[in-house]
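Recap from last week: sequence in, structure out.
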Amino acid sequence: MTARRRARARKVAISLPASLHEEIERERRERGMSRSAIIVAALEESLARRRREALIERYTEGYRRMPESAAEVEAARAAAAELLAEEPWE
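Predicted structure tokens:
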């Protein structure tokens, strides 16, 4: 956690199931992290994953609304084949 983030940090009291608390404690000991740091890391990872999933969904939805034409698909296939042919496969 950076000094800037610590300066803006807020204390939050939460209730956790005992099994999750035990898992957090085990993980933080193994990784040598504070309880706050391990929880912040887990939340940041979870939120980043959700942002990525939302972007993928937007990307997919865009192609559902406006699919590629046959010409675009063929152009992409040809470009990929050309690039792959240039790769040193040995």
